Amino acid sequence: MHELILTIVKPLVDFPEDVSVHEVEEDHHISYQLSVNKADIGKIIGKKGRVAKAIRTVVYAAAGSKQHKKIYLEIVE
């Protein structure tokens, strides 16, 4: 899942070297924390959150069939 998120996000940003994903696994869910350069936050969120929603949709669809846990994708600064 980590590689999927990086594959989606890196082409969208100006500073791909600053993109990182951290996985936090708990009992009932897994959180992926996406961190990008401050200048790229707007590109990842998009107008009215449309880009972020699209990224989450792809990640949830890919992980939903493989995992029996709830998946969350957080965008952090």
Could you walk me through the main structural features you see in this protein, from its secondary elements to its overall organization?
The chain is α+β, with helices and mostly antiparallel strands and 77 residues long. The chain has a single domain, classed as GMP Synthetase, Chain A, domain 3, CATH 3.30.300.20. Helix content is 36%, strand content 26%. The chain has helices at residues 2-9, 41-45, 50-64; strands spanning 20-25, 29-35, 70-76. It has a 3-stranded mixed beta sheet with strand order 1-2-3. The radius of gyration is 12 Å and the shape is globular.
Give me the secondary-structure category. alpha+beta
SS strand fraction: 25-35%
Name of the CATH class: Alpha Beta
For the secondary structure, the number of strands is 3
Give a quick account of the main beta sheet: strands, pairing sense, barrel closure: 3 strands, mixed
Relative helix content? 25-40%
Q: Give the overall silhouette.
A: globular
Series of secondary-structure elements, N-terminal to C-terminal: HEEHHE
Q: Can you tell me the CATH topology?
A: GMP Synthetase, Chain A, domain 3
